[in-house]
UniProtKB/TrEMBL annotation:
CDD domains the UniProt entry points to: ACD_sHsps-like
Name by which UniProt lists this protein: Hsp20/alpha crystallin family protein
Provenance organism: Sphingobacterium oryzagri
Domain SHSP: 35-147
Family indicated by similarity: Belongs to the small heat shock protein (HSP20) family.
Record InterPro entries: A-crystallin/Hsp20_dom, HSP20-like_chaperone, Small_HSP
Domain of life, source organism: Bacteria
PANTHER family: HEAT-SHOCK PROTEIN 20 FAMILY MEMBER (PTHR11527)
Pfam families the record matches: HSP20
Higher taxonomy: Bacteria, Pseudomonadati, Bacteroidota, Sphingobacteriia, Sphingobacteriales
Amino acid sequence: MALIKFPTKTVNSDVVNPYVNNIFDNLFNDSFITDRLVTRVPAVNIAETEQAFKIELAAPGLQKSDFKINVDKNLISIGVEKKDEQAVEEKLYSKREFSYTSFSRSFTLPETVDYNSIEAAYTDGVLIVSVGKKEDAIVAKRLIEVR
């Protein structure tokens, strides 16, 4: 098996304008443009305590009514679909700005989940979903005395 090393930068052989490739490389590799092309989903932290599982979803700028949380068998889905329209009329023309925010995250729940004890709270831009465990899944801690 042979390994072939490709050059990381192309050599610009244009004698008239040697900076053309550099300008286009910088334009298309700019993080300003690539950030808008990437689909954004909020970051999630999942933690397990003795009593429950906690799902923390960072979603600032939303309201409690924007969230839709569905549980279907062993799958919990957290989604948002928000549409803001603002119309500003100036002089002889009208300017409209649309703002759409939507995402959906789904997580598989283990068999130890108590489906009657699922709660959600949204404070300071973080959605916290608490999924309780069944009583038989909660391990009782006790101190074992050595004799």
